[in-house]
Write a structure and sequence with these properties.
The chain is of the alpha+beta class and 177 residues long. It has 3 domains: 1-38; 44-145, Ribbon (Umud Fragment, subunit A); 147-176. The chain is 35% helix and 22% strand. The protein has 3 helices and 7 strands; from the N terminus they run H-E-E-E-E-E-E-E-H-H. Strands 1-2-7-3-4-5-6 form a 7-stranded antiparallel beta sheet. It starts with a helix and ends with a helix. It is found in: Endoplasmic reticulum membrane. InterPro entries: LexA/Signal_pep-like_sf, Peptidase_S24_S26A/B/C, Peptidase_S26, Peptidase_S26B. It catalyses: Cleavage of hydrophobic, N-terminal signal or leader sequences from secreted and periplasmic proteins. One of its GO terms (biological process) is signal peptide processing.
Length: 177
């Protein structure tokens, strides 16, 4: 009888572990699917500063798409700069085509429509004057206001993240199904 109960408990724990693994795997499959559909390495980003207000506020989630269409001045894009981990959301103010190679290069900053009037070249890698297409992660094609605050709070207050993970883990372990 004791062996039977122990066997059931082991099966229950294994079932919970497999369920958790399936949830994580499903999330990864959805993320990779979004990457394929949008053509962006990061199809969803959170606005972390107020530099794009009033258009996008801190905590808004942006949906990105990266098509083959040329990037034009005035578009809002998300870009990565060499040596920085966190992507930046700003507006394209100038598109420059190099005469020798025909490659397009971009200058970005916030303009009068946005909240930051400084030149973005201070954010670029040392000696870099322009961004190239490989720096652009995607164009902003939509947004969801305020939902990204969950990410910001968990990043700025790690204790909340650990408490949430612990509570979810406890929920998975103690659930009956």
């Amino acid at each position: 009888m004791v062996e039977s109960i122990r066997s059931l408990q082991i099966r229950h724990v294994l079932n919970q572990i497999i369920s958790l693994g399936m949830i994580v795997t499903s999330a990864l499959i959805i993320w990779k699917g979004l990457m394929c559909v949008t053509g962006s390495e990061s199809p969803v980003v959170v606005v972390l500063s107020g530099s794009m207000e009033p258009g996008f506020k801190r905590g808004d989630i942006l949906f990105l798409h990266m098509s083959k269409d040329p990037i034009r001045a005035g578009e809002i894009v998300v870009f990565n700069v060499d040596g920085r981990e966190i992507p930046i959301v700003h507006r394209v103010i100038k598109v420059h085509e190099r005469q020798d190679t025909g490659r397009l290069m971009f200058s970005l900053k916030n303009d009068l429509r946005d909240n930051n009037f400084g030149d973005d070249r201070l954010l670029y890698a040392h000696g870099q004057l322009w961004l190239q297409r490989h720096h652009i992660m995607g164009r902003a094609v939509g947004f969801l206001p305020y939902v990204g605050w969950v990410t910001i709070i968990m990043t700025e207050k790690p204790i909340i993240k650990y408490l949430l993970i612990g509570a979810l883990g406890l929920l998975v372990i103690t659930s009956k199904e």
